[in-house]
Amino acid sequence: MGRILLGDNLSRLKKLATGSVPLIYIDPPFNTGRIQKRQRIRTIRDEVHGDRSGFAGKRYRTEKLDGPAGYHDIFDDFLGFLQPRLQEAYRVLSPAGSFFLHLDPREVHYAKVMLDGIFGRECFQNEIIWAYDYGARSKSRWPAKHDNILWYTKDPANFTFHLDECDRIPYMAPKLVGEQKAAKGKTPTDVWWHTIVSPTGKEKTGYPTQKPLGVLERIVKVHSNPGDLVLDFFAGSGTTGEAAVRNGRDFLLMDSSKEAVAIMRKRLAKWTRKKK
Ligand SMILES: C[S@@+](CC[C@H](N)C(=O)[O-])C[C@H]1O[C@@H](n2cnc3c(N)ncnc32)[C@H](O)[C@@H]1O
């Protein structure tokens, strides 16, 4: 049964036993310099002030509605904020455990240097590029449509990696590999094409920066064993928890936002340990 904790993750992490967690995935704020908030809008029929056209040329006006509170993603010293938390992640990771840090190109290179210092360069295993294609496309530079996920292991040679458990993807040129292979598909490389959480789909919780379940399920299936504990200490809407329980793993989720914790509790109610 999983657990969800509200509060700053650093003090919570300090209470966890050394070497006790087989899989950690975190998706901290990216230091975008913005308040992350999902903007809700409604459109109202308005022939006079309408700012967009709809069916049969009718005019509609767009109104912005108040959304959920969101969270601050502005840091004077982002690396100074991350450093003690990454250090704790290393401490609580079990001897054959894996650690995943999800960022984007703004901060990932600095974080890589920091993690090399904490884990040792030999413990760096992969930089996974999560590539998607959604939203506005810049015309003045290449549209930035990927995130970076760094994978480190506590031990450079002894770690869990069940590639056979991974979902398979289609070949780019199926005709070149024959019918049988094409039907089976192939395992992915370190570039993962996966759509974002659809703003209108069933998976959407309404929490800003929610990550797709498909990406998290791949990590959980390949990098942990059934029954293992999966920790996410920047858990947001609880995607890691859902990926864990769907695959027979336990979860421990932390977040400092009341709104995030409320969303997680609702999303994972079936699988969450009740507070005494
Ligand atoms: C990018 S979001 C995580 C989104 C999540 N992966 C999902 O799929 O919904 C980052 C989260 O970190 C939380 N956070 C920021 N600082 C924190 C801290 N010091 N302790 C715990 N959580 C924190 C924010 O409230 C936010 O929910």
Explain what the structure shows.
- The protein folds into two domains: 3-33 and 74-271, Rossmann fold; 36-73, no CATH class.
- It has seven helices and 13 strands.
- The chain has helices at residues 9-14, 78-92, 108-119, 179-184, 213-223, 239-246, 258-267, and strands at 3-6, 21-26, 34-36, 40-45, 52-53, 59-65, 71-73, 93-103, 124-131, 146-153, 191-193, 229-232, 250-255.
- Helix 5 crosses helix 6.
- The chain is globular and about 65 Å long.
- The model has no long low-confidence stretch (mean pLDDT 90).
- Bound molecules: S-adenosylmethionine (SAM).
- Residues 8-9, 27-29, 71, 207, 209-211, 234, 236-237, 239, 254-257, 260 line the site of S-adenosylmethionine (SAM).
Compact description:
This protein is of the alpha/beta class. The protein has helices at residues 9-14, 78-92, 108-119, 179-184, 213-223, 239-246, 258-267; strands spanning 3-6, 21-26, 34-36, 40-45, 52-53, 59-65, 71-73, 93-103, 124-131, 146-153, 191-193, 229-232, 250-255.
